[in-house]
Design a protein that fits this description.
The protein is mainly alpha-helical. The chain is 50% helix and 6% strand.
Length: 139
Protein backbone atom coordinates (compact mmCIF):
# COMPACT_ATOMS: atom_id res chain seq x y z
CA UNK A 1 0.00 0.00 0.00
CA UNK A 2 1.25 3.47 -0.85
CA UNK A 3 0.28 6.42 1.28
CA UNK A 4 -0.85 9.53 -0.54
CA UNK A 5 1.84 12.23 -0.48
CA UNK A 6 0.01 14.45 2.03
CA UNK A 7 -0.49 11.55 4.46
CA UNK A 8 3.15 10.51 4.17
CA UNK A 9 4.30 14.11 4.79
CA UNK A 10 2.02 14.36 7.80
CA UNK A 11 3.39 11.13 9.22
CA UNK A 12 6.99 12.34 8.74
CA UNK A 13 6.16 15.65 10.42
CA UNK A 14 4.43 13.91 13.33
CA UNK A 15 7.35 11.52 13.78
CA UNK A 16 9.81 14.42 13.82
CA UNK A 17 7.73 16.11 16.52
CA UNK A 18 7.61 12.85 18.49
CA UNK A 19 11.41 12.53 18.28
CA UNK A 20 11.88 16.14 19.41
CA UNK A 21 9.81 15.64 22.56
CA UNK A 22 8.94 18.96 24.19
CA UNK A 23 11.22 20.92 21.87
CA UNK A 24 9.49 22.49 18.86
CA UNK A 25 10.54 21.56 15.32
CA UNK A 26 10.48 24.04 12.47
CA UNK A 27 9.10 23.64 9.00
CA UNK A 28 12.56 24.41 7.61
CA UNK A 29 14.21 21.60 9.62
CA UNK A 30 11.69 18.95 8.60
CA UNK A 31 11.61 20.15 4.99
CA UNK A 32 15.39 19.90 4.75
CA UNK A 33 15.59 16.44 6.36
CA UNK A 34 12.93 14.95 4.11
CA UNK A 35 13.31 16.99 0.90
CA UNK A 36 9.75 18.33 1.13
CA UNK A 37 8.93 21.80 -0.24
CA UNK A 38 8.60 24.11 2.79
CA UNK A 39 5.37 25.72 1.55
CA UNK A 40 3.67 22.33 1.19
CA UNK A 41 4.97 21.20 4.58
CA UNK A 42 3.75 24.40 6.25
CA UNK A 43 0.23 23.54 5.08
CA UNK A 44 0.61 20.03 6.51
CA UNK A 45 1.63 21.43 9.91
CA UNK A 46 -1.30 23.88 9.84
CA UNK A 47 -3.76 21.03 9.23
CA UNK A 48 -2.20 19.00 12.04
CA UNK A 49 -2.73 21.99 14.34
CA UNK A 50 -6.37 22.37 13.24
CA UNK A 51 -6.89 18.63 13.87
CA UNK A 52 -5.56 19.00 17.42
CA UNK A 53 -2.52 16.80 16.84
CA UNK A 54 0.06 19.60 16.98
CA UNK A 55 0.42 23.05 18.47
CA UNK A 56 2.36 25.91 16.95
CA UNK A 57 4.51 28.52 18.66
CA UNK A 58 5.53 31.76 16.95
CA UNK A 59 8.68 33.78 17.29
CA UNK A 60 12.26 33.00 18.14
CA UNK A 61 12.54 29.41 19.29
CA UNK A 62 9.10 28.72 17.87
CA UNK A 63 7.91 25.86 15.77
CA UNK A 64 5.57 22.92 16.19
CA UNK A 65 5.24 20.16 18.77
CA UNK A 66 2.72 17.43 19.46
CA UNK A 67 -0.32 18.41 21.48
CA UNK A 68 -0.32 15.08 23.35
CA UNK A 69 2.09 12.35 24.31
CA UNK A 70 3.23 10.36 21.24
CA UNK A 71 1.86 7.19 22.85
CA UNK A 72 -1.63 8.72 22.66
CA UNK A 73 -1.54 9.54 18.92
CA UNK A 74 -2.04 6.75 16.39
CA UNK A 75 -0.82 6.55 12.83
CA UNK A 76 -4.48 6.33 11.77
CA UNK A 77 -5.27 9.63 13.49
CA UNK A 78 -2.46 11.40 11.62
CA UNK A 79 -3.20 9.87 8.22
CA UNK A 80 -6.95 10.50 8.45
CA UNK A 81 -6.36 14.25 8.74
CA UNK A 82 -5.59 14.02 5.02
CA UNK A 83 -6.92 10.69 3.74
CA UNK A 84 -9.86 9.07 5.53
CA UNK A 85 -9.62 5.30 5.43
CA UNK A 86 -13.10 3.79 5.35
CA UNK A 87 -13.76 0.11 4.79
CA UNK A 88 -15.85 -0.69 1.75
CA UNK A 89 -19.46 -1.59 2.39
CA UNK A 90 -19.99 -5.33 2.00
CA UNK A 91 -23.37 -4.97 0.29
CA UNK A 92 -24.84 -2.51 -2.12
CA UNK A 93 -23.58 -4.03 -5.35
CA UNK A 94 -25.20 -3.26 -8.67
CA UNK A 95 -28.24 -5.26 -9.67
CA UNK A 96 -27.18 -8.46 -11.35
CA UNK A 97 -23.67 -8.31 -9.91
CA UNK A 98 -21.95 -11.65 -10.25
CA UNK A 99 -20.15 -13.86 -7.81
CA UNK A 100 -16.70 -12.60 -8.86
CA UNK A 101 -17.59 -8.96 -8.19
CA UNK A 102 -19.19 -9.73 -4.81
CA UNK A 103 -16.21 -11.78 -3.67
CA UNK A 104 -13.71 -9.21 -4.88
CA UNK A 105 -15.60 -6.42 -3.09
CA UNK A 106 -15.65 -8.52 0.11
CA UNK A 107 -11.90 -9.20 -0.13
CA UNK A 108 -11.07 -5.53 -0.68
CA UNK A 109 -13.29 -4.61 2.28
CA UNK A 110 -11.32 -7.00 4.48
CA UNK A 111 -8.03 -5.52 3.27
CA UNK A 112 -9.27 -1.99 4.02
CA UNK A 113 -10.32 -3.05 7.53
CA UNK A 114 -6.97 -4.76 8.18
CA UNK A 115 -5.06 -1.64 7.10
CA UNK A 116 -7.29 0.55 9.26
CA UNK A 117 -6.83 -1.70 12.31
CA UNK A 118 -3.08 -1.82 11.82
CA UNK A 119 -2.78 1.96 11.55
CA UNK A 120 -5.01 2.31 14.63
CA UNK A 121 -2.80 -0.06 16.64
CA UNK A 122 0.49 1.77 16.01
CA UNK A 123 1.31 4.96 17.89
CA UNK A 124 3.88 7.61 17.10
CA UNK A 125 5.82 6.46 20.16
CA UNK A 126 6.05 2.99 18.63
CA UNK A 127 7.26 4.36 15.32
CA UNK A 128 10.08 6.41 16.78
CA UNK A 129 11.21 3.86 19.37
CA UNK A 130 14.61 2.36 18.66
CA UNK A 131 14.69 -1.40 18.09
CA UNK A 132 15.31 -3.20 21.36
CA UNK A 133 13.91 -0.43 23.55
CA UNK A 134 11.38 -1.56 26.16
CA UNK A 135 7.81 -1.64 24.92
CA UNK A 136 8.70 -2.31 21.29
CA UNK A 137 5.72 -3.58 19.33
CA UNK A 138 6.31 -6.95 17.74
CA UNK A 139 4.59 -7.27 14.38
Amino acid sequence: MRLPRSGACALRAAMEMALAGPDPVTVAEVARRHAIPPTALAKVFQRLVRAGIAVGHRGVGGGYRLSRDPSAITVLEVIEVFEPIHPREPGGGAAGEGLVERRLRALLGEVDETVRCTFASVTLATLVREPGEPGERVA
